[in-house]
Design a protein that fits this description.
The complex is a heterodimer of chains A (754) and B (154).
Chain A lengths: L12 H13 L7 E9 L7 H5 L5 E9 L5 E5 L8 H13 L6 E5 L9 H8 L14 H6 L2 H4 L2 H4 L7 H29 L6 E4 L2 E4 L4 E4 H8 L28 H6 L16 E7 L7 E5 L1 H4 L4 E6 L3 E6 L2 H9 L2 E4 L9 H15 L5 E6 L2 H7 L2 E9 L11 E7 L2 E5 L5 H12 L6 E4 L14 H13 L3 E4 L2 H6 L7 E9 L5 E8 L18 E6 L16 H18 L4 H8 L4 H14 L9 E10 L2 E10 L6 E10 L6 H21 L4 E2 L2 E2 L17 E7 L17 H13 L14
Parallel strand pairs in A: 3-4, 8-18, 16-17, 20-21, 24-27
Antiparallel strand pairs in A: 1-2, 2-3, 5-6, 6-7, 8-11, 9-12, 10-11, 13-21, 14-19, 15-16, 15-18, 19-20, 22-23, 23-24, 25-26
Helix pairs in contact in A: 1-4, 3-8, 8-9, 15-16, 18-22, 21-22
Chain B lengths: L5 E4 L19 E4 L9 H4 L8 H8 L39 H4 L7 H9 L1 H4 L13 H13 L3
Antiparallel strand pairs in B: 1-2
C-alpha cells in the first residue's frame, strides 16, 4: 500500500464522473456538495461485531455531509434517534468543524437502503485503493480517500445504534473529519476561483471570506466547484481551544417536532390509503415450543376480523382495527408442543446456575482475568470475606410497544418500524417476505425507546411474513403483555466472590466467578482497583429465555456485583467506603477525580437524618467513568431514594446538556430495575405481563438528581447513553446497608421489604 | 351476503418439528374470513334488528349514550337528563335538569320522528342545544335506540 505523503490517490475521469453521478443519483438537489467519510472505528461493539464487520474485527462507521443550494448543511447520520439526542450532538460536531452556525444545520437519518450504504455508492464515491491501519482518527482519512469500497459494503451493517457509540465513534472519527474535509474543499474552491492563497481564506457562519481582496461567498455558492476539488488527505480537525459549538448545550434538533407532535415514530408509520389493516400476535410462551393447535370458532365470529393465522411460532389475527385484532386473538384457544423446560421455574433455574458455579469452584471455569495468585493470597489473608449476589432477568419495557408495519406486493416490501439496526431489520423483513434485501425499503422513523430492545430483527420478520400472507399492508402491534413476555432479556446471573484483607485492611486478593459470558467482556474486571491478586472467571449455563442487550449490557449486573462487594470489603476492613475506594484507586487518576467529585457534591460524611443512609459506587463503562452517591430514606415501610449525585467523566462532553440528560435517564432506568423489577419463570414461561407487575419508576418515586461533568480526556471520548446506569443499583444497595445494616445481595430491593 | 370461512391448511408437516424461529416462513394455517373492504359476513354483522330484537340492539347502541344519560326511573340526571319516559314527553320538561334555553324553548315533543331527527344531528334540530356529542349517523342504530327508549317509558 502506498502511504507517501505526497502521493495523491489516483482519480480517473470515470471516478470524477461517477462521484457526481452518485450525487445526482442520490436524490440530492442540484448544486449540492456531498462529502462522505467511511472509517474504521476502534469502538468494540462486542457481540454485534460479527454483524457489523463480518469478522474483520473492526467496526465501520460512515458519515455524510450535504451542503444545499440554500446554504443549509445537512448531517446525514447513520444512527437512530431513540430519545438519546446523539444525532443532534454529532451534527454539532460537524457544524463546528465546518464553521457553520447552528441555525444552518439540519439532521437527517441516513436511509437504510440506496446510495448511502450500498457497496455501489461506496465504490462510486470513495474510489479504489487500500485501507492503512492507523490508530489515530485523522489518519483514518487517508483510507477514506484511498478508498475502501470493498470494505464499505459492510457499512450496510454498520448502521447500528448501540454501545453508547454514536458521538465517540461516528461523531469523533467520522463527522468531524467529514466537516473538516468539506471546509477544506470549499476553501480550495474559493482559492481557485478568486486566485488567492487558500491560507488567506477564513470561514465563519457558512461563509468564505478573503479579507485582503474583500471577496466573500456563501458555502452554497462554492459547493459545485468544491465538489471538483481533490479530496484532502488529512483534514485538520480543531484543537479544543478552537471549539465554538462543541462543548456547548446547543438545543437538540429533534425537539421542535417532538413538541408539536409532528414527529413520526414507528407506530405512526405506514402507507397512505385505506387498505392498511392491523395485526395482533401471540408467540409461543415457552422458548422452543411451536403452536400445536388453534381453536378459532369464537374469534372468527368477532367483529372486524379478516384473517386468523397460525404461523407455527406465533398466532396472529388481522382485523380492521388493532382493538378488534387483539380481542379476537384473546378468544383463540392455543395449545403448544412440549419442550424440555415446560416444568422449569426460576428457583430451579437459579439452582442450576448455582450448580454450575459449584462445578467451577474457586479456580475452574473460563478465565477472564488472572494475575497474581488469588487463591494463595486468600489462604494467607488475615481477614477473609465471601459473598454471593444474584440478579434477575430484566425486560426493556420501551414506552412505544414493539410494532412494525409491512407491505409486501409486486416483489417489493416496505417497512415502517423503529429499530436500532435498520439494515439487520431489513434483512429480517426480506427473509420474511421471501425477497432480496435490495427489494426492501426501510422507512426512517423515531424510536419510542430502544435501550437495546430494538437490536433484534424478529419483529420485522414477523410483520413481513404476515403482510406477505395477507397481500395487503399490515400494522402489527404487540400488546404490552406480548412485549413483556417475549423480550430478549438482560441475563439473570449469580456472582460469587472471595476477597482477602491483610492486617491493615488492604485488599490482597479478589476472586470472582459468575454465570454468563459477558458483553462487553471488560464488565466484571477490576484492573483499575489496586489489587495484586485477581481471578475472574465465568461458568457456562443455559438460559431458558432469549437474552439480549439491555441498557449498559453486562455492566448492569457487574456494576452491582463488584461495587457491592467492594463495599462489603470496606466494612470488613472497618473503613469508610469512600476512603476505602480512594485508596484502591490510587493508580487510576481519572477514577479518583470522579470519585472525589461525587463525594464533594454529596457532602460525603456530612450528617443525615435518622434512618437515612448514603451509598457510593463507581463504574467505568463504554469508556466513561461514572460515580454515584444515593441517599435513601429507610423510615417508611420500603426504601425511598431521595437523592442521587452523579459525577461523570466522558472524556469531553460534546453537549453537556445531552450528557447530563443521559446520566439522569440512566439513573432512573437503573433504579427502576434495582428497586422493583424482575422477570421470573414459571412452567418455562415468563410470569410478568404489564406495568402492574413490572414497574417503571414514576415521578413520585424519582429522586432529585444532580450531575457534574469532568472533561478529563478530550481526545478519548466515552459514551453517554449507558454509563449512568451501572452505579445506580450498587449505590442504592450500599445506602440501604449504611442506613440499616441490612446487606442487599439480590435484586430487586423491594422484595426484601415486602 | 353469506361467507363461508375459507380455511387454508398449509404445511402441517412442520408442526412440532422446528424450534420457535423463522423456519416456517409460510403460515401453517391461514383462515381468511374476508378481504379488506368486503362486507362483513352475516354471522358477525347480524344486527339485533334483523333478528327481531330491536330493543336489545338499541340497548347495546345506547351504551355510549349512558356516559351522560341515566335511564332508570327516578335516577339522578347526569351531564344530560334522565331519559326514562322521554318518548312522548315535551322537550326540556324535566324539572330536575338544567336545560339550555334552546331546549326549553324548542317546542318539540319527543316522538319517534322528532327523536330521529334530533339524534341524526342535534344542533340542526335544536340549534343551541348543549348536547354537543352523541349524533348517531346510522339510521338503523337510531331506530334501535328510539325503540329502546320507548321500551323504558312503560
Amino acid at each position: 500500500m502506498s502511504e507517501g505523503a505526497d502521493t495523491k490517490p489516483p482519480r480517473s475521469k470515470a471516478a470524477k464522473w461517477t462521484r457526481r453521478g452518485f450525487i445526482g443519483a442520490g436524490a440530492l438537489a442540484g448544486g449540492a456538495l456531498i462529502v462522505g467519510v467511511a472509517v474504521r472505528s476502534g469502538n468494540p461493539v462486542g457481540k454485534l461485531k460479527p454483524i457489523v464487520a463480518g469478522g474483520e474485527g473492526e467496526a465501520l462507521v460512515n458519515s455524510w455531509v450535504k451542503i444545499g443550494a440554500d446554504n443549509l448543511v445537512t448531517a446525514i447520520v447513520p444512527h437512530c434517534e431513540m430519545g438519546q439526542g446523539a444525532n443532534s450532538t454529532i451534527a454539532q460536531m460537524l457544524a463546528d468543524e465546518m464553521d457553520v452556525n447552528w441555525e444552518n444545520v439540519r439532521v437527517m437519518d441516513a436511509p437504510a437502503d440506496g446510495n448511502y450504504v450500498s457497496q455501489h455508492a461506496a465504490r462510486l464515491f470513495v474510489g479504489p485503493g487500500t485501507l492503512p491501519d492507523k490508530p489515530n482518527a485523522v489518519s483514518f482519512m487517508e483510507p477514506t480517500y484511498d478508498g475502501l469500497f470493498t470494505q464499505v459494503a459492510k457499512l450496510a451493517s454498520a448502521y447500528i445504534t448501540g454501545g453508547s457509540s454514536s458521538v465517540r465513534s461516528t461523531g469523533q472519527n467520522g463527522m468531524r473529519i467529514a466537516g473538516a474535509a468539506a471546509r477544506e474543499m470549499l476553501v480550495a474552491a474559493a482559492a481557485q476561483e478568486w486566485g488567492v492563497p487558500a491560507a488567506e481564506i477564513t470561514t465563519e457562519n457558512a461563509t468564505l471570506t478573503h479579507a485582503k481582496s474583500g471577496k466573500s461567498a456563501l458555502y452554497s455558492a462554492m459547493a459545485a466547484p468544491a465538489s471538483e476539488q481533490d479530496l484532502p488527505r488529512a483534514p485538520k480537525i480543531k484543537d479544543i481551544s478552537e471549539f465554538k459549538l462543541m462543548g456547548t448545550p446547543a438545543p437538540r434538533k429533534d425537539i421542535p417536532v417532538k413538541v408539536d407532535g409532528t414527529a413520526m415514530f414507528g407506530i405512526d408509520g405506514g402507507p397512505d390509503g385505506s387498505d392498511l389493516r392491523y395485526a395482533a400476535i401471540k408467540a409461543c410462551p415457552v422458548v422452543g415450543s411451536q403452536v400445536a393447535s388453534i381453536e378459532t370458532s369464537a374469534a372468527q365470529a368477532m367483529g372486524g376480523v379478516l384473517q386468523i393465522l397460525n404461523m407455527g411460532d406465533f398466532v396472529a389475527v388481522i382485523a380492521d382495527s388493532y382493538w378488534q385484532a387483539q380481542q379476537a386473538l384473546g378468544a383463540i384457544e392455543t395449545t403448544y408442543t412440549k419442550t424440555e423446560i415446560d416444568d422449569l421455574d426460576s428457583a430451579q433455574m437459579f439452582a442450576n446456575f448455582a450448580s454450575a458455579l459449584d462445578e467451577a469452584g474457586d479456580a475452574g471455569g473460563n478465565s477472564k482475568a488472572d494475575y497474581g495468585d488469588a487463591a494463595g493470597a486468600f489462604a494467607d489473608a488475615a481477614n477473609k470475606v465471601e459473598a454471593e449476589y444474584q440478579v434477575p432477568y430484566l425486560a426493556h419495557a420501551t414506552m412505544e410497544p414493539m410494532n412494525c408495519t409491512a407491505w409486501v406486493r409486486d416483489g417489493k416490501c416496505d417497512i415502517w418500524t423503529g429499530t436500532q439496526v435498520p439494515l439487520m431489520s431489513r434483512d429480517g423483513a426480506a427473509e420474511g417476505a421471501g425477497l432480496d434485501a435490495d427489494d426492501v425499503t426501510m422507512h426512517s422513523v423515531f424510536l419510542g425507546g430502544g435501550f437495546g430492545r430494538r437490536l433484534t430483527p424478529e419483529y420485522t420478520n414477523q410483520a413481513a411474513r404476515l403482510a406477505k400472507a395477507a397481500g395487503y399492508p399490515i400494522k402489527m402491534i404487540w400488546s404490552r403483555e406480548e412485549d413483556t413476555a417475549q423480550d430478549f432479556y438482560r441475563p439473570a446471573d449469580i456472582s460469587r466472590f472471595t476477597g482477602g484483607l491483610d492486617a491493615e485492611g488492604k485488599v490482597v486478593c479478589w476472586n470472582n466467578v459468575h454465570c454468563t459470558e459477558d458483553e462487553p467482556a471488560e464488565a466484571p474486571l477490576v484492573e483499575f482497583y489496586d489489587i495484586a491478586n485477581v481471578s475472574v472467571r465465568t461458568s457456562e449455563v443455559e438460559h431458558p429465555l432469549r437474552i439480549g442487550a439491555w441498557r449498559s449490557v453486562a455492566h448492569s449486573q457487574h456494576g452491582f456485583f463488584v461495587e457491592s462487594f467492594v463495599d462489603e470489603l470496606a466494612h470488613a476492613a472497618g473503613k469508610d467506603p469512600f476512603e476505602f475506594r480512594r485508596s484502591l484507586l490510587a493508580n487510576s487518576p481519572r477514577h479518583l477525580k470522579v470519585l472525589e467529585g461525587v463525594a464533594k457534591m454529596a457532602n460525603w460524611g456530612g450528617a443525615l437524618p435518622e434512618g437515612h443512609g448514603r451509598g457510593i459506587a463507581i463504574v467505568r463503562s463504554f469508556n466513561s467513568i461514572v460515580a454515584e452517591i444515593a441517599e435513601v430514606d429507610m423510615t417508611g415501610d420500603k426504601p425511598r431514594v431521595t437523592k442521587v449525585f452523579c459525577c461523570v467523566d466522558a472524556g469531553f462532553a460534546m453537549n453537556p446538556d445531552g450528557l447530563k440528560a443521559q446520566m439522569e435517564s440512566g439513573i432512573i432506568y437503573g433504579l427502576s430495575a434495582a428497586m422493583h423489577n424482575e422477570i421470573t419463570i414459571k412452567n418455562g414461561a415468563v410470569e410478568q405481563s404489564n406495568f402492574h407487575d413490572y414497574h417503571m419508576m414514576r415521578m413520585d418515586d424519582a429522586p432529585e438528581i444532580a450531575v457534574e461533568i469532568i472533561n478529563g480526556a478530550p481526545n478519548n471520548l466515552g459514551g453517554a447513553g449507558e454509563p449512568g446506569l451501572p452505579p445506580a443499583a450498587p449505590a442504592l444497595a450500599n445506602a440501604v446497608f449504611a442506613a440499616t445494616g441490612k446487606r442487599i445481595r439480590s435484586l430487586p430491593i423491594a422484595k426484601h421489604f415486602s | 351476503m353469506k361467507h363461508a370461512s375459507l380455511v387454508l391448511l398449509i404445511g402441517l408437516a412442520s408442526l412440532g418439528l422446528s424450534a420457535c424461529g423463522s423456519e416456517s416462513q409460510e403460515p401453517v394455517e391461514q383462515i381468511v374470513i374476508r378481504e379488506p373492504g368486503a362486507e362483513a359476513p352475516a354471522a358477525q354483522n347480524v344486527t339485533a334488528a334483523e333478528s327481531g330484537d330491536l330493543v336489545a340492539a338499541g340497548k347495546a347502541a345506547f351504551a355510549v349514550c349512558s356516559a351522560c344519560h341515566s335511564v332508570e326511573p327516578g335516577a339522578a340526571s347526569g351531564i344530560g337528563p334522565n331519559l326514562n319516559g322521554v318518548v312522548g314527553r315535551a322537550a326540556g320538561s324535566l324539572d330536575s335538569f338544567g336545560y339550555s334555553g334552546a331546549m326549553t324553548g324548542s317546542d318539540v315533543s319527543w316522538d319517534a320522528d322528532e327523536l330521529d331527527a334530533f339524534l341524526a344531528n342535534p344542533s340542526a334540530k335544536v340549534p343551541g342545544t348543549t348536547m354537543v356529542a352523541g349524533a348517531v349517523t346510522d339510521a338503523d342504530k337510531r331506530a334501535a335506540i328510539i325503540a329502546y327508549l320507548s321500551s323504558l317509558s312503560q
